[in-house]
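Thought: the user asked what Gustatory receptor looks like in 3D. I have the sequence; next I should run the structure tool and report back without guessing.
Action: structure_tool
Action Input:
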Amino acid sequence: MEQQLRAWLRYSLVFGLYISPTPGRQYTNDRSTARSKRLAWLERKQILTKQRLKEIYLHLLLVGLCVAYVRALAARKPIPGLASEAACTLIYSIQALSSIVIVGEGLWRQRQQEAFLRLLHEIEFSLKLRLREDIKLACWPSRARWHLKYLLWLSLICFGLALYNFMDLQHLGFFWHSIWYNIIIRLRIIQLCIYVFALRNYMECLCMKLQQLVAYRTAPSQQLLDINYEKLQTLAYLLAIKDIYDLLYKAFELLNEFAGWSLFIIITCYIMDYGCALYFALLGFEGFLDSSDYYVPAFWWLVPMTGTIWHICYLCYNCTQLDRLLAARLRRLIIMNSSQSMRSYRTLLQRFSTQLELQCIIVTGRNFFILDLRLVTAILATVTSYLVVLIQFLYI
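Observation:
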């Protein structure tokens, strides 16, 4: 699955989300040693050239984003109302900053992202080889493709409808200048959704295997014929479960490291964007603007934003719940094994249980907030407060 992710991510270089490594060949079977060395040297030089060209493109993209931001501020058209102009300038500045942070992470956090993708491959390989898990992993690529198509088509269709309805409006602020910024932001959050979806799928597989181990200890009469329960009771099998959990925990740590700032700035940008879109829809509805149709494009603008935020928060919430489920099932296993004489087995169980109690798998926006379903409620409360503050300026 890691190769399919790389194939999808290869096209995201245009938006500065990911730099794909350029693979090379090794000429080990050539009869001429000098010729093979020359070919290897030329290929290494070609690989380094391609990699440098990709990095140069991202540097130019960063410069272009900054130049576009300054030019938009210099060529801005007047917007009626001090609060309206301040809100438009603020949201546009945050959108530009979000895009710069995202491209910067793609440029300067590429090693962490490569390590994350290699960890995904290692986790899947360990599940197949050490735990013989191939039930849910077989359908994982099709499920991932479905989620990717769903999020992309939702964003594309609603984005097109919003553009169509925005053309007839008079006061658009920085909307046309921020289209490229919004594309980068939405593709980045979809990319992170697929990452979290992959980790959740692996955690579900690990939970299922641990549940089989608990069922072997607690309900031997309900054993299935296609499961090798003799292997479940070995120390090596429990050690494999612990090693895969360590890989999953490390993958979440890497995700927070290379995508923490973009998650924080994207969520902040979406909060401001929510308030700004609802504010202009309310202004048009109350007659403060020339047209009252601002709520139509605002609706199509907010639908994909709402769906994507809820989706990633729901996936992160599921990962946290699966982590707690692993700890609960492991505690049941310790209780059932407390009377046995397997000292090394019980010692490993106690260490693993202590590790699960001390560690907690979460996805954060650079430790400013945790992505879960409670964040959705917090976003609604923040948007409401932001909207109330903007409305109060209308009557000053």
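Thought: the tool returned a structure. Summarizing for the user.
Final Answer: Structure for Gustatory receptor predicted. Residues 235-286 form the longest helix (52 residues). The mean pLDDT is 81.
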